[in-house]
Design a protein that fits this description.
alpha/beta, Macrophage Migration Inhibitory Factor, four-stranded mixed sheet, two-stranded antiparallel ribbon, about 25% helix, globular
Length: about 120
């Protein structure tokens, strides 16, 4: 279950109403997973500085099981950065994205870890 987390100093009013759905569609398409398995979390109105400046910025994290690392991360980077700039108006030098590969045993859904789900 991929999860995209976006922390930003933008106010809630600057986040498009379709942002969560659009972000889920983007992540699903680039990692080739069904959108119903993608989670998106957006935290707004935060105090965030990038490069010592509090101009509009965002810190992001993409977490996923068995879908991240090496060349894959390189393939995912450009579409995500383009999406953030297009939808939020945050330029690439004001957005930092972290990729975090996690194990199925570290995520639970419906009362059991994803390691316990059939493959």
């Amino acid at each position: 279950m991929p999860l995209l987390i976006i922390d930003t100093n933008l106010p809630r009013s600057k986040i498009p109403k379709t942002f969560v759905n659009d972000a889920a569609e983007l992540i699903a398409s680039i990692i080739k997973q069904d959108k119903k398995h993608v989670g998106v979390l957006v935290k707004t109105d935060l105090i965030i500085g990038v490069g010592g400046s509090e101009e509009p910025a965002a810190l992001g994290k993409l977490q996923a099981i068995n879908l991240l690392g090496g060349e894959r991360n390189n393939q995912y980077t450009a579409p995500i950065f383009e999406f953030i700039e297009k939808t939020l108006g945050i330029k690439g030098d004001r957005f930092v994205l972290e990729f975090q590969a996690i194990e199925g045993s570290e995520v639970a859904l419906n009362g059991k870890t994803l390691a316990d789900y059939p493959k």
